[in-house]
Backbone:
């Protein structure tokens, strides 16, 4: 989820019967994900091979180090970054990278599911050590937590194949988004205001609990378009069997980051671990396995928000 208040997530009931069957054949959805598809793996062998680096592991705060676990707050699905495979295991680009980070730190990642909006408060309260849910690092969020940047993403729209709807001509149209994402909180309200200020009808913002539902709404004709983070939109298009296409170009690129408690030494540990994985090439391998190498960064920073 991109600049602003991120990046995710009122929900809609699943359609039943033949409609659901049709949707599953057209799109990777929760419960009908095509994990056998060659567009992405379900696990990364690179993540499993990452070895502990003592000099970096020794920088981890003692309470975390002694526990042997890195407790990670996560909200799914947000394919391909974090979602569940058919067995219920949480997988994705973010997961493989965090597994490799944890291994470098001599820890095991312990994933705890939570509502997206509750992850940062849980980090502040000490329930989670770190958040991993495609968080955009923003100036606003940096007031309550620190971030370690690890990726760059922007917003990107998708529409039904053959449609002419896009970000610049969506007045009066239905646009699907995941609730509490930057697209729902910042982007679409601003675009809608531009419409109404010009005397045109407002954008009808359709909010869903999960990105899979937002994408499904476009496939089923319930929405005219969708807006999401660029890797998510591109993966949805690839999985749609030609039902969806890109609408316009990526815009408002900003860094993804892992949020940690304000002032925690864990931020520097995560930064050092990622620098190590960039140097070894494991970072590139993991990103390439999931087809998201376009968003790779050269150097992670602490609190690198651009807005």
Residues:
């Amino acid at each position: 989820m991109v600049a602003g208040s991120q990046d995710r997530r009122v929900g809609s009931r699943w359609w039943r019967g033949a409609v659901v069957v049709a949707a599953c054949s057209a799109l990777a959805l929760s419960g009908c994900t095509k994990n056998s598809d060659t567009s992405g793996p379900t696990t990364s062998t690179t993540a499993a091979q990452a070895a502990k680096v003592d000099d970096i592991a020794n920088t981890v705060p003692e309470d975390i180090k002694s526990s042997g676990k890195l407790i990670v707050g996560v909200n799914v699905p947000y394919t391909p970054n974090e979602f569940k495979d058919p067995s219920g295991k949480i997988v994705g680009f973010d997961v493989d990278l965090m597994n490799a980070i944890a291994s470098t730190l001599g820890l095991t990642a312990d994933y705890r599911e939570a509502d997206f909006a509750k992850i940062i408060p849980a980090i502040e309260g000490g329930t989670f050590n770190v958040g991993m849910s495609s968080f955009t690092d923003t100036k606003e969020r940096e007031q309550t937590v620190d971030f370690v940047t690890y990726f760059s993403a922007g917003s990107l729209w998708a529409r039904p194949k053959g449609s002419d709807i896009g970000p610049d001509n969506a007045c009066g149209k239905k646009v699907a988004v995941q609730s509490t994402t930057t697209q729902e909180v910042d982007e679409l309200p601003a675009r809608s205001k531009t419409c109404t200020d010009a005397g045109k009808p407002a954008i009808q913002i359709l909010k869903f609990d999960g990105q899979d539902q937002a994408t499904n709404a476009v496939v089923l004709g319930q929405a005219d378009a969708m807006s999401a983070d660029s890797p998510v939109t591109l993966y949805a298009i690839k999985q749609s069997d030609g039902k969806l296409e890109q609408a316009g170009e990526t815009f408002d690129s900003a860094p993804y980051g892992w949020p940690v408690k304000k002032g925690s030494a864990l931020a520097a540990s995560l930064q050092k671990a990622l620098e190590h994985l960039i140097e070894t090439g494991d970072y590139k391998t993991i990103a390439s396995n999931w087809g998201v190498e376009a968003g790779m960064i050269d150097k992670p920073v602490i609190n690198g928000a651009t807005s």
The first strand starts at residue 69 and ends at 74. The chain has a mean pLDDT of 86. The radius of gyration is 19 Å.
